[in-house]
Inverse folding.
């Protein structure tokens, strides 16, 4: 069990691409392929505008696509859908059900991540419940979630010292501000707008990935 936990912990690092609300599955696959070719190491399928049928179609299509890459594939919110498409795990928000239920659905070998917003206590509780990574944000103004709570960079430093889990940062992250979050201790940058709205998705993904290689070289 310890070996499996370590394997899962190391699966969350680098550019963490969160899919846009794209109704055209072919277009979604085109965009995601460019991001993966550019170096995205984690992909979360998230489409708040899709109905259940479209979510199943897109989640399955992405599962097939990521098989061509070294990429951790997660589903947002829905542990049942993650199990259906044999994703690597699920990401839970504050109101997306319990960790215990997700674990019961997915089993011990799958990854469970949780949004902890700007609350270090919630992160400690999530760790005690057995999640495999924690996420904080929004660190910067977000066009996707303009009303998201604001997280301070120092929460990354605190979590790095107190919690032995990979940390994901999210919220308005760009190539220009992402380096400061990596320096503060985040293991992954979850990105939506700055990736999918870029004129060249492949290049944008490369630029985000380069932030991590630079950080590694500075160690």
């Amino acid at each position: 069990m310890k070996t499996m936990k370590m394997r899962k912990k190391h699966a969350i690092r680098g550019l963490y691409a969160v899919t846009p609300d794209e109704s055209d599955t072919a277009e979604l696959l085109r965009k995601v392929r460019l991001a993966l070719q550019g170096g995205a190491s984690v992909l979360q399928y998230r489409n708040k505008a899709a109905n259940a049928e479209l979510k199943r179609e897109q989640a399955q299509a992405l599962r097939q696509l990521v098989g061509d890459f070294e990429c951790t594939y997660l589903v947002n919110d829905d542990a049942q859908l993650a199990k259906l498409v044999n994703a690597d795990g699920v990401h839970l928000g504050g109101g997306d059900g319990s960790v215990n239920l997700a674990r019961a659905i997915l089993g011990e070998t799958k990854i469970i991540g949780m949004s902890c917003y700007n609350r270090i206590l919630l992160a400690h509780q999530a760790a005690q419940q057995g999640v495999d990574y924690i996420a904080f944000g929004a660190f910067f103004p977000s066009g996707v979630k303009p009303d998201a709570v604001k997280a301070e960079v120092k929460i990354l430093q605190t979590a790095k010292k107190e919690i032995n889990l990979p940390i994901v940062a999210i919220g308005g992250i760009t190539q220009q501000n992402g380096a400061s979050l990596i320096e503060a201790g985040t293991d992954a940058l979850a990105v939506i707008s700055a990736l999918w709205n870029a004129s060249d998705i492949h290049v944008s993904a490369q630029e985000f990935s380069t932030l991590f290689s630079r950080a590694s070289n500075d160690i």
Remarks:
- The two ends are 30 Å apart (CA to CA).
- Strands lie at 14-18, 42-45, 72-76, 89-92, 111-115, 133-136, 167-170, 188-191.
- Confidence is low (pLDDT under 50) at residues 1-7.
